[in-house]
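Hi there,

I know you've been waiting on this one. I reran it after we fixed the sequence typo, so this is the corrected version. Both the input and the resulting structure follow.
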Amino acid sequence: MEDLERAAREQMKEFRKALEFFNLETGDYPETRQALTEPRMDSDVGTMNSIPADPWGEAYVYCLDDGEVVLFSKGADGVAGTEDDVFPN
């Protein structure tokens, strides 16, 4: 389990880097995670080519809460808000 949690944290580090790059380019964070893969007006590519699923095959939870990024994996049970949720360090 620790290896999967470590892998999730590593993926979220990369996800976070893409979010920060998007923010630097646009002045905002994307409303949805899919916006990271969409071309912007000044480019024909997105910030990320694709967004990987977490190590358990689920989408990472991403949203904005009062402008703050919320990002985590629902962990092995696939249910948000339980003790196995994995958050970036």
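Quick highlight: Strands lie at 61-65, 68-72.

Best,
R. S.
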